[in-house]
Amino acid sequence: MSKLTGRRSKKAGLSPGTLIYLGSKRTEEVKISLMEYDGDHVQERVLKKSEEAFPFKDLPTSTWVNIDGLQQVEIIEALGRHFNIHPLVLEDILSTGQRPKMEEFESYIYIVLRMLSFNEQEAKLEDEQVSLILGPNFVLTFQENEGDVFDPVRNRLRNDKGKIRKAGADYLVYALIDAVVDNYFAVLEKVGDRIEFLDEQLAVNPTPEVLAQIHDLKRSILFLRKAVWPLRDVINHFQRGEIPIFQPPTMIFMRDVYDHTVQVIDTVETLRDIVAGMMDLYLSSLSNRMNEVMKVLTIIATIFIPLTFIVGIYGMNFDYIPELRWHWGYFAVLGIMGIIALGMLLYFKRKKWL
After folding, report:
1. What is the pLDDT of residues 133-147, one digit of tens each?
2. Domain 293-350: which topology?
């Protein structure tokens, strides 16, 4: 339940803008990487201190500063102070349970995305908050863990592929958002493969373990839906062209991201319906198995009813029962009972009850 609601109880009673990291407890060092580029060159550095990024704020080139790790609040606070980031934005960066959103300020915009991955070993969905700040010539990205889906963007910057180095910082933000959305398709493929596997298991052997896995998958799709649905509104806001810091040529590329987002949402809804159908199929399979068991037991009981009647008659304690003194009486009764049982089985088979 804490994953659904977040651990916001730590901030109860504190004033707005108080910087407290609400994510998982970590001990590793925060990693700060920087890429500064224009159409002619690119330099890439790993910074030891946040202060090393300060001189790049006012350069005419574009700068991308990426922070992996949010547990050292003083680093986030120092970057926010130098780049004139509002304290409430810094608070949202450290509160890692934010829904996708976009907030516009006078000199920058703040964007929140959910970066997803599928853990195939544990067969569950994992998500992470990515915060982006777009300024006139810089982009700041904040992540909780090291490792992301931005390596293709970094390679394009290093190798000068496409127009990314010739465009401004707004195009870099488009590329980062596009990388996150494209990764959703990869996650959906893995979720789809998992659904197909469980569907086969459900048809062969619908055990309670399969039901538990279907329930976990249903919860993963719920988190996926929660991450994707608000993103459509965020990208749609870009499409309206009401953000001055975003150049008109970049708006065209954002339309493509919007189309991809709509496709992801449609796929999520389809998978959601399929998983709901699998839950119903499990219950139906369980009911059918119970019906089969009850049918077999009913047939056995029905066959034994006349046999029990015959045995009951010859089990009565009367002095005069003619068949009791007949030499072949025992075998005759067994034969009659066998004929009755066989006849009932043939009758049931003819009626296709077996």
Report:
1. 999 899 999 998 888
2. Methane Monooxygenase Hydroxylase; Chain G, domain 1 (1.20.58)
